[in-house]
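An instance follows:
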Amino acid sequence: MPLEAVFAEDARAAGASAPDATLEAVAGELIARWSEPHRHYHNLAHLEACLDEIDDPVTRLAAWGHDAIYDSRSPANEERSALLLTHLLHRCQTPPDIRDEAARLVRLTKGHAVDPGDERGKMLADADLNVLTRPWPSYLSYVDAVRREYAHVSDDLWRAGRAAILESLLDLPAMFHLHPEREEPARANLHRELTQLHQSAGA
């Protein structure tokens, strides 16, 4: 199914009542954003990987929006993406409570801290972080793709920023909630990458 049709189906399932042409236009804008040339990891492949894991309509809309704005120079991508998604879902004539919930989920991806009773948050966080569980060679390919998104950053700044992100994830009580079997391989990868970052910084 074309991605435009996937979005339209997701929006309808979440209560959108706008004409088909509007849903198609919104889908087109989102797909264009996810297809921007500076995206090497945070692109359509990542979006589709997330959607493959999510069956709740509202959480699927949040997945569509969670990296809709991706600027590696900005610390406010999640907030900007949440505001954009709220606007786009308003155009789709989605109920206000659905818009608010989808935006809340987008903001959650800034740190991936999920409350115990937040089933939608668990679903989105697990899907978004699944890349961390890849076998080591594939994991390194993911890291390389993210590094290309930060090509403007010096190696020293990259190592410091990347290490801070890895440490914040490792500090979470759990990264995975619906798929606890992913926790061990993800943490092993993060520790291994962190060790390499520290070693390269001291070289």
